[in-house]
């Protein structure tokens, strides 16, 4: 049996990101392995625990699980924990790697009984594969089409029972029939500062780095509610402490975060670019997503799934049917005066 906790199985498809191998290895090293080690999301943890316990008591494979939420909140980590906690092997794939029904058929037919199949970015799977997945999830069976035209026949193929864990940053893009076939959907929320401080305390301990509580809290409050960002900022603070000496205290935190353009409330360069564009070029909005994306030189999908959820959550941006609007808080944060004569935006 394969080790369910392995971090880089051969078929793990990692989406291209600007992160280096070292960053990915660092991320892997800090991943909690058990539900008890997983910080925050107490509701989701309780729900998952019950689902796994019930399956274990009945000696059956756990129901399919959908993990939804912005990047870096712990979806991949939870998928690994599900396999680890239920002592099952884990197979990792991703939507972009499944571009034909045949890709999925090959994957499904090679699963061993009880295996956990993780499909990251499941909203990016090919439509033909999605349809095959419906039957596979429901009946552990697929129909394989052989031949073309009038002579085409479908051959049913029984599969080993498995648990599908899907992850998505865009649950709205999943077709309803697919969404409905998951026994449980976990919507991951942004973390509060106290939870992120705990994530950082754990990471600092694993890195044997002495970071005082006030410095941890400062990093936490500038991490956009996201454990991945908290860990990454900690790494920059550690770099700073190593190079400059003087420890990883408040001073190192301030200096390192300033160097990397993390502003006092944790907004990064792209967050600020989006807000500045709406405020200065579009008079506060409303502006359509695509226009906004082109103006800041980013993909619309990145703006929508990476930038906006946090700006909405902290009340700096609203999404209206006519487009995105910067709120009063955003103007204030950027230090730009709003035109006050009969302003259209007074009530946002
Ligand atoms: N609840 C948590 N407690 C402790 N660490 C966490 C938690 N959630 C995430 N992390 C840390 O944050 C990092 C990113 O988490 P993960 O890769 O699971 O995010 P993700 O939701 O899969 O992101 P993406 O959508 O980009 O794939 C992990 O390396 C892990 O160390
Ligand atoms: Mg992930």
Automatic annotation (TrEMBL):
InterPro entries: AAA+_ATPase (IPR003593), AAA_lid_4 (IPR041445), DNA_helicase_Holl-junc_RuvB (IPR004605), P-loop_NTPase (IPR027417), RuvB-like_N (IPR008824), RuvB_wg_C (IPR008823), WH-like_DNA-bd_sf (IPR036388), WH_DNA-bd_sf (IPR036390). It is found in: Cytoplasm. GO terms for molecular function: DNA helicase activity; hydrolase activity. ATP binds at residues 30-31, 72, 75-77, 138-140, 181, 191, 228. SUPFAM superfamilies: P-loop containing nucleoside triphosphate hydrolases (SSF52540), Winged helix' DNA-binding domain (SSF46785). Mg(2+) binds at residue 76. The keyword DNA damage applies. Residues 264-348 are annotated as: Head domain (RuvB-H). NCBIfam families: PRK00080.1, ruvB. Belongs to the RuvB family. Homohexamer. Forms an RuvA(8)-RuvB(12)-Holliday junction (HJ) complex. HJ DNA is sandwiched between 2 RuvA tetramers; dsDNA enters through RuvA and exits via RuvB. An RuvB hexamer assembles on each DNA strand where it exits the tetramer. Each RuvB hexamer is contacted by two RuvA subunits (via domain III) on 2 adjacent RuvB subunits; this complex drives branch migration. In the full resolvosome a probable DNA-RuvA(4)-RuvB(12)-RuvC(2) complex forms which resolves the HJ. Has 3 domains, the large (RuvB-L) and small ATPase (RuvB-S) domains and the C-terminal head (RuvB-H) domain. The head domain binds DNA, while the ATPase domains jointly bind ATP, ADP or are empty depending on the state of the subunit in the translocation cycle. During a single DNA translocation step the structure of each domain remains the same, but their relative positions change. This is Holliday junction branch migration complex subunit RuvB. It comes from Lysinimonas soli. The gene is ruvB.
């Amino acid at each position: 049996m394969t080790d369910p906790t392995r971090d880089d199985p051969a078929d793990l498809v990692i989406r291209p990101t600007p992160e280096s191998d070292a960053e990915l290895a660092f991320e892997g090293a800090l991943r909690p392995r058990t539900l008890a080690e997983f910080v925050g999301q107490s509701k989701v943890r309780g729900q998952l625990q019950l689902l796994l316990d019930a399956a274990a008591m009945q000696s059956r494979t756990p129901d399919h699980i959908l993990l939804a939420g912005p990047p870096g909140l712990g979806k991949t980590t939870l998928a690994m924990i599900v396999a680890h906690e239920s002592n099952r092997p884990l197979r990792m794939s991703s939507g972009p790697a499944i571009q034909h029904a045949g890709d999925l058929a090959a994957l499904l037919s090679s699963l061993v009984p009880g295996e956990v199949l993780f499909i990251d970015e499941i909203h990016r799977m090919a439509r033909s594969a999605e349809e095959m997945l419906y039957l596979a999830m429901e009946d552990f069976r697929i129909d394989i089409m052989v031949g073309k035209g009038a002579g085409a026949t479908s051959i049913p193929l029984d599969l080993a029972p498995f648990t599908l864990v899907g992850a998505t940053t865009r649950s709205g893009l999943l077709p309803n029939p697919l969404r409905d076939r998951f026994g449980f959907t976990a919507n991951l929320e942004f973390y509060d500062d106290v939870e992120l401080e705990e994530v950082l305390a754990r990471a600092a301990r694993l890195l044997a780095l002495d970071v005082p509580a006030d410095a941890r809290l400062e990093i936490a409050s500038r991490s956009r509610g996201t454990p991945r960002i908290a860990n990454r900022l900690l790494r920059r603070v550690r770099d700073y402490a190593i190079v400059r000496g003087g420890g990883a205290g408040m001073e190192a935190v301030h200096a390192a975060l300033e160097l990397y353009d993390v502003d006092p409330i944790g907004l990064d360069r792209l967050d600020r670019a989006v807000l500045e564009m709406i405020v200065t070029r579009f008079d506060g909005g409303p502006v359509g997503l695509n226009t906004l994306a082109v103006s800041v030189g980013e993909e619309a999908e990145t703006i929508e799934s990476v930038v906006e959820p946090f700006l909405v959550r902290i009340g700096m941006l609203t999404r209206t049917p006519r487009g995105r609007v910067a709120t009063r808080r955003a103007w204030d944060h950027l230090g730009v005066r709003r035109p006050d004569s009969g302003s259209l935006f007074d009530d946002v």
